[in-house]
Amino acid sequence: MLIFCQCGHSMRVPWSTEVATEPVKRPILVSQPVLLEAQDVQEVHEAPPALGLPRSPHQPERLLGKVNPLFCLQHAEAKTAGLCDACRLPFCNDCLVMIQELRLCGPCKNFRLAGMAQPRRVLPLAVMALVLALCSAPAALIVTLAAFGFYQSEGLLGVAVTLCVLAMILPTIALGLSIQAIRQLEARPHAAGRGLATSAICLASVGLIWCVTVALILIGRTSGGG
Predict the structure, then answer these.
(1) Whole-number Cα distances in Å, 194 to 94, 178, 182, 191
(2) H or E segment at 181?
(3) Are 11 and 18 in contact (CB under 8 A)?
(4) How far, in Å, CA of 56 to CA of 70, rounded?
């Protein structure tokens, strides 16, 4: 802060907060040696306990928290009777049950039964194959009849056979889709639609047989006429 006298000179006067204060001297702490007794020194120099997994009180040779293939996962006292076919963990006879020719543990059994209780969903590929087979059968019939009529009226064997070959396209595609649906159903036992895929195979096969038969009849007539 500046203070002016009557002569016009100024003099700087510090505020109360600007007054320099002496630093506070803190005592220096000096560590003093601690005298240990013989018992304390022995406890300090003892080796720490080995870090590892705890052992079972019933089976000392079995480690808790680690799967031992010689003992049941649920019962520490029971020897292993076999592995679960789903999770491949060791269990005793009391923990394993037979379901659909599979030896399963309790959790895997519950999971499989819960999946079996759910409604089975129809495989979309089986539905698609059946729809295509239903459409290909009348289409193949119409095209082959047109080819037969065209041969009767014009006498062109090549055109008639070509129409029969074109009529086999849809049944062939339907047959391929139905076979693929059967393979997927075998890989997914919980899916439904085997009857649809089988019906599609039958319809597509009938359509193919019909087209081949008409083509052979036309070729036979031409050969017999010649």
Answers:
(1) 37, 9, 7, 9
(2) helix 169-187
(3) no
(4) 14
Task: Give burial (CB, 10 Å; 0-12/13-18/19+) of 164.
Answer: buried
- In whole angstroms, give the CA distance from residue 198 to residue 204: 10
Q: Beta strand pairing status for 102-104 and 97-99?
A: antiparallel
CB atoms within 10 A of CB 99: 14
The per-residue pLDDT for range 49-61, each reduced to its tens digit, is 444 444 545 555 5
Q: How many CB atoms lie within 10 A of CB 148?
A: 18
**How many angstroms separate the CA atoms of 212 and 224, rounded?**
18
What CA–CA distances, in Å, run from 105 to 83, 113, 119? 9, 12, 24
Q: Residue 99, Cα to own-chain centre: how many angstroms?
A: 23
* Res. 116: pLDDT tops 70: no
Confidence of residue 77 (pLDDT cuts 50, 70, 90): confident
Contact 193, 126 (CB under 8 A): yes
pLDDT at 41 (0 to 100): 45
Q: What is the CA angle 111-114-117, rounded to 5? A: 150
Read off the tokens for 143.
């095209």
| Cβ–Cβ < 8 Å for 194, 124 | no
Hey, what are 220's tokens?
A: 């036979």
Q: Decide: 79 and 59 in contact? Cβ < 8 Å.
A: no
Q: Which amino acid is at 210?
A: W
C-alpha 174/C-alpha 180 separation (Å) is 10
Cα–Cα distance measured from residue 197 to residue 199, given in angstroms and rounded to the nearest whole number: 5
